[in-house]
Design goal:
heterodimer, A: about 270 residues, alpha/beta, Elongation Factor Tu (Ef-tu), domain 3, Rossmann fold, 2 domains, seven-stranded antiparallel sheet, six-stranded mixed sheet, 6 helices, B: about 300 residues, TIM Barrel, eight-stranded parallel barrel, 8 helices
C-alpha cells in the first residue's frame, strides 16, 4: 500500500453526466496522476482546488472513482458550496490532493460478491469492478433517485451485471429494501461477501439485514472531515463490542483512518 | 539561515530548532502526518489535548466549515495521558524535535496530577496548559476567564512539573488578555501561547438547527488572525516571558506578522487541514521570507513593530 502523500495535480477535464450546461449537477473530474504506486477501491482522497482560496479552508473527501496509468478520476454531485466551486473548475486549474486515504474494500476474487450502491455510493465500485480479477463473481444492486444517466453506471455494467431501481415514490423505496434483502439472502446462502456504499439510512438497512442473515458485510461510511488523516476528530463513529482493539470497544473511532470501510457488526449506525 | 530560538522561561528554557510548532488538536499525535513530511524538521509538535482518563468527546456534528475558518466542538476526545506516554510518545522523534504535551483538566488538582505524570517523561520537552476548560467545582466557570483561577492552575502545574517548560495557552474570550497574561506570568509560567479558539456558532437556516450538536464551538482559521495578532501584541507588551503566537497562520508572511507583533515562535493550526504538508512547507519557506525583508535572522524582527 502506498503511503499517503500530498500532491498538486492539474485538472484535465470535467465531464457532466445527465443534464449538461448550467443545469449539470453530476460530474466526472479527471486529474493528472498523483504518482502513487498502489491504491485500493474504497479508499478516498481529500481534494482542494486552488479556487477555494482562504474562503473554504477544508478540502473535500471523495471516494476514488478510478485510476488509470495516467489519471486520477473523481466523480461528484453538486450538493454544497465546495462542490459548486469544484463544478466550475477548468482544464489547467491546480488541485491539491492528498491520499490514498483509509482502508478500502475487501477483495476476495473467488467469493460471490454483492455490491449494494445507493445514489452516489456507486462511485467507488467503478474502480472495484475494474480491479477485480474475476468480475464474473460480482453482481450489483443500485438504487437511485436521479435519472440513471447521472451516474457512472455504464463503466460498471461493461464488467458486471447491474440491477437498478429508481426511487420515485415511497413504494419504490419499499421495493428497493425488499430487493436488498432478497439479494443478501441469496449471497448469504453462497457464503458470499456484501459491500455497501450509500446514504446512512440505506447503510442502516443493509447493516440490519447483515446482522440478521450473518452474511459478511462491509459498509463504507462517510462524514464531515476537515483533515482526512485522523487528526481533526470530526468524523468519528461508535464501535461495537466486536471491534478488534479492546480499548476502543464501544468507543469512538475516526471514519477516515479506521475506515471508511467497516465490517457491519463492528460499528453502530 | 539559523532559525533556532530559545524560549527563555522563569524556571525552564525551551530550545526550538525553528519557530514553527503545530497547534494542539490540529496535528493529532504527530504520527498521523509522518508521511507528509519529516516530523523532525518541525520546531515542535504540540499534541492533541491530554486528560487523566480517556475522554469520548461530544456528539457529531462536532466540526463545521465557516467562511475562512471552522468551528469545532470535539470535546477533547483523547486516549488519556497513559496511552500517550506508553504508545505514542516512544514513536515520536523527541530527541530531534520538541514534543509539547497539551493538558486539559477540570480542577487544579487534576492539572497537578497530569503535570506530575508528564514531568517524569524524558520525551516531553514542555507542557502546554489549556486553561479554556470549565472548573467543575465552581459551576463550570472557565479557568481561562478568571485571572485568579488561571493563576491557580498555572501554579499547580509549575509546582508538579519542576523540570518542564510550562506554556500557558490563553483564551481570547476575555475582556483583558494583558491581565490574564500577567496573572499566569506571576504564577510561574515560562511562556504564553495565544490564542485558543474564539467561541462561535453557526446555524442551518433550513433546518433551523445549530450546525454543531454542541450548539457553540471554537472558531479557528484565517478568519481569526487579526484577533490573534491583537492578542499577541497586547500580551507581549504586558509580560516579559516569551509569547508563542497562533491563530489563522497559513503562510510564512503570516508567521512573520506574529513575530513582528512580539511572538518568539508560532503554531500552525487549521492550515494543517488545508494541506497536511503545510507546517513542513512553512519551515522551508521561512528563510526566503526573511531574505525578502532583508533581515539576517528572526531575532531582528521580533517585536520590531513600527508604530
Amino acid at each position: 500500500m502506498s503511503e499517503p502523500q500530498s500532491s498538486l495535480l492539474t485538472a484535465l477535464d470535467l465531464v457532466p453526466f445527465g443534464q449538461s450546461g448550467l443545469e449539470a449537477r453530476f460530474f466526472a473530474l479527471r486529474l493528472t496522476h498523483p504518482g502513487w504506486t498502489q491504491w485500493r477501491p474504497g479508499q478516498f482522497v481529500m481534494v482542494r482546488p486552488s479556487s477555494f482560496g482562504f474562503e473554504l479552508p477544508w478540502a473535500r473527501p471523495f471516494g476514488i472513482c478510478h485510476m488509470t496509468a495516467k489519471h486520477l478520476i473523481l466523480f461528484f454531485q453538486v450538493v454544497g458550496r465546495g462542490t459548486q466551486r469544484l463544478a466550475q473548475i477548468r482544464p489547467g486549474d491546480e488541485v491539491r490532493v492528498w491520499g490514498p486515504l483509509g482502508n478500502g474494500f475487501a477483495l476476495e476474487p473467488d467469493r460471490p460478491t454483492l455490491l449494494l450502491a445507493g445514489g452516489m455510493g456507486i462511485v467507488p465500485f467503478v474502480g472495484y469492478v475494474h480491479l477485480h480479477p474475476k468480475p464474473w463473481n460480482i453482481h450489483m444492486l443500485f438504487g437511485h433517485r436521479e435519472p440513471i444517466d447521472c451516474y457512472p453506471v455504464d463503466s460498471i455494467n461493461e464488467r458486471v451485471p447491474v440491477d437498478s431501481l429508481r426511487e420515485h415514490t415511497a413504494g419504490d423505496l419499499d421495493n428497493f429494501i425488499f430487493s436488498i434483502q432478497e439479494h443478501m439472502q441469496d449471497i448469504a446462502e453462497q457464503d458470499g461477501l456484501v459491500l455497501a456504499c450509500g446514504p446512512l439510512p440505506f447503510l442502516r438497512t443493509v447493516r440490519q439485514f447483515a446482522l440478521d442473515s450473518g452474511v459478511r458485510t462491509q459498509l463504507s461510511l462517510e462524514n464531515r472531515m476537515a483533515c482526512g488523516v485522523g487528526a481533526c476528530l470530526g468524523c468519528v463513529t461508535r464501535t461495537t463490542q466486536a471491534w478488534p482493539v479492546a480499548e476502543k470497544r464501544g468507543g469512538m473511532v475516526q471514519i477516515c483512518n479506521h475506515g471508511p470501510v467497516f465490517w457491519a457488526h463492528q460499528v453502530e449506525l | 539561515m539559523d532559525l533556532s530560538v530559545v524560549l527563555k522561561g522563569q524556571t525552564c528554557d525551551l530550545h526550538l530548532k525553528n519557530p514553527v510548532l503545530t497547534a494542539s488538536g490540529t496535528f493529532g499525535y504527530g504520527l498521523e502526518f509522518a508521511s507528509y513530511g519529516r516530523l523532525a524538521t518541525l520546531g515542535g509538535i504540540v499534541v492533541k489535548g491530554l486528560s487523566l482518563s480517556p475522554r469520548e468527546g461530544n456528539p457529531c456534528p462536532r466540526i463545521v466549515e465557516t467562511t475562512a475558518g471552522m468551528l469545532n466542538a470535539v470535546g477533547l476526545q483523547n486516549d488519556g495521558v497513559e496511552c500517550f506516554c506508553r504508545q505514542k510518545l516512544p514513536r515520536l522523534p523527541w530527541r530531534e524535535t520538541a514534543i509539547i504535551a497539551n493538558i486539559y483538566a477540570t480542577s487544579p488538582e487534576e492539572f497537578g496530577e497530569l503535570a506530575a505524570r508528564l514531568d517524569g517523561e524524558e520525551g516531553v520537552a514542555a507542557i502546554e496548559v489549556n486553561v479554556s476548560c470549565p472548573n467543575v467545582k465552581q459551576g463550570g466557570v472557565l479557568f481561562g476567564q478568571d485571572p485568579t483561577l488561571a493563576a491557580t492552575v498555572t501554579a499547580a502545574v509549575r509546582r508538579n512539573a519542576p523540570h518542564k517548560h510550562v506554556m500557558v495557552k490563553l483564551s481570547p474570550n476575555v475582556t483583558d488578555i494583558a491581565l490574564m497574561a500577567r496573572s499566569v506570568e506571576d504564577a510561574g509560567a515560562d511562556s504564553i501561547s495565544c490564542i485558543n479558539t474564539l467561541l462561535g456558532m453557526a446555524v442551518d437556516v433550513r433546518s433551523r438547527r445549530p450546525r454543531l450538536a454542541n450548539v457553540v464551538g471554537g472558531l479557528s482559521g484565517p478568519a481569526i488572525k487579526p484577533v490573534a495578532l491583537r492578542c499577541v501584541w497586547q500580551a507581549a507588551r504586558a509580560v516579559s516571558i516569551p509569547i508563542v503566537g497562533l491563530g489563522g497562520i497559513v503562510s510564512a508572511d503570516d508567521a512573520l506578522e506574529f513575530i513582528l507583533a512580539g511572538a518568539s515562535a508560532v503554531q500552525i493550526g487549521t492550515a494543517n487541514f488545508m494541506d497536511p504538508a503545510a507546517a513542513f512547507n512553512l519551515v522551508d519557506e521561512l528563510p526566503a521570507a526573511c531574505r525578502r525583508l532583508e533581515v539576517p535572522s528572526l531575532s531582528q524582527l521580533r517585536g520590531s513593530l513600527v508604530i
